[in-house]
Structures are given as structure tokens and as C-alpha cells.
Amino acid sequence: MIRSLLFTPATRLDRLQKALASAADMVILDLEDGVGPSDKSAARAALAELARRGFDGEAGRIGVRINSLGSADGIRDMAAMLDWPAWPSLLAVPKVQSGFELRQVQALAGRHPTRLLITLETALGVARAVAILAEAPRSAIVGYGSADHTAETGAAMSGAGLAWARGQIVNAAATAGIPAVDGVWLDYGDPGGLETEARLVKSMGFSGKIAIHPAQVATINTVFSPTEAEIETARAMVAASRAAGDGAFSFNGKMVDAPVLARARRMVD
């Protein structure tokens, strides 16, 4: 399960060890928004060197975000990666607007067992969520790029302003059978606000959230991890279902049917 994805610019690999020490489930080295146009080539070269070193033994926790495949820099990123001797375990593809982009990335990835983070962050991408994710491999994750999306639509980055798009993405992720992670909380000096938003999106069906600062990781991991009490209750419910046989049954004074039991089994798993 991936709860937290921490982004850091590919031009600042000196921050990589600090990012890895944050306990983020994945650290994403960014070639896109975190890198200015004049620094793209240098960032690619830095990642190529890191790849030659086998990502310093941390490839399993490192991902790379390329530029949009609808841009020249995105094509340059993928072309450069074809020469890397090793790939990270996750490839973040931004601003996805069609299933063709996913097929394109998978064809170029070839033999590399790289998981995709499919980011929907344009009006068209969010509107096409179900069709796009129908092309996603079952190992993929979908992310919501709320900052870019609201910049295009003019919506507020608030619970009300983001509710429709978040619902679209969670529902599309469910139809594809893949997890969804929410976008960034921009005020990294406000852990209380981050916790409140993380609990909101967890209640909507998201399984994690993107971080932009190491200080945000602990809050995100805590919110998206079940408590020991929740796990024990789920285990007891699953055990009780075996004794109850088929159909609904009573557990701790509440009715348990198939959907409730399915949720408990997912938690135990």
C-alpha cells in the first residue's frame, strides 16, 4: 500500500537522503513542475548518473516524474530513460488526457517492471477518467493533480471546490480496480490543516496523499494507516463471518453484510 508520495526536484539530489529518511512510501524525483525550463537537461543528466549507480540501492522507493508526453520535454525524458541501465520502481506520468499515453509509456518501458502513477490534473483528463483508467495496468495508481486542475477550472482548492473532481477520480479508480491518491496540501507549515484534509479524502475513498515537504509525511502515513484497534476489529469480524456462514450476520450489535465484510477483509489484507 502506498500512502505517501514525496516529491523533490531532480535538480536537488542532495535532498534525496533526507527525503528517504522521512519514511515516505515513495520519493518521486521530479523532472516536471519542480524543474525550470532552463534546468531540464541538467536534471535529466543528474538522473541518468543516479540510474547508473542503481539509484544507490534505493530503486524500490524511488520514482521519477517525467514531463507531459504532450510536450517536447516529455518525449526527451522518455528518450533519455531508454538509455538508463536501471529504472526506478515507479514512473509518474503527469497531465494524462488519453489512454494512448498509457499505452505509449508501457511500450517504451518494455521489460522494466515499473509501476505507473497516472496523474489526472486537467479538465479533459478528469472528464475522461473512466476511459483513461480502463487502459491502466492493474499495478497502477491514479493521482489527482488538484493544483493544476483548479488553475484551469478556477475552482477553489477547498473541500467544496474539489469535491466533484475527487469523486470522479475515486469512482474511476474503483472501476479500474486501482488505488487513488489525493493531491498536495500546499501549506506545509500547517500540519493541522493537512490532517483535516487527509481525513476528508480518506473518507471519500482515497488511499494516500502527495507530499511536497518531508514534514508532511508522518501526518499522511498516520491518517492513511489503520489503527491496531481497527485491524483487530476487522480480524474479529472476518473470523465471525466464518462461523456465521452465508448471508448477513450480527457483530458487536451491528449488521454485517457482504460490502461491510469486504471492507474488513481489505483492511486485514
Description:
The structure is a single chain. The chain is an alpha/beta fold and 269 residues long. It has 2 domains: 4-223, TIM Barrel, CATH 3.20.20.60; 228-268, no CATH class. 46% of the residues lie in helices and 16% in strands. It contains 12 helices and 10 strands. Helix 8 packs across helix 9 and helix 11 packs across helix 12. The longest helix has 18 residues, at 159-176. The chain is globular. The N and C termini lie close together (10 Å).
- Do you know the CATH topology of the largest domain? TIM Barrel
Q: How would you spell out the order of helices and strands?
A: EHEHEHEHEHHEHHEHEHHEEH
Number of domain modules: 2
Straight-line N-to-C gap: 10 Å
Compact description:
The chain is an alpha/beta fold.
Furnish the topology, listing elements before pairings.
Blueprint: E1 4-9, H1 16-21, E2 26-30, H2 40-52, E3 62-65, H3 72-81, E4 90-93, H4 99-109, E5 115-120, H5 123-127, H6 129-133, E6 141-144, H7 146-153, H8 159-176, E7 180-182, H9 191-204, E8 208-211, H10 217-223, H11 228-244, E9 249-251, E10 254-256, H12 258-268
Parallel strand pairs: 1-2, 1-8, 2-3, 3-4, 4-5, 5-6, 6-7, 7-8
Antiparallel strand pairs: 9-10
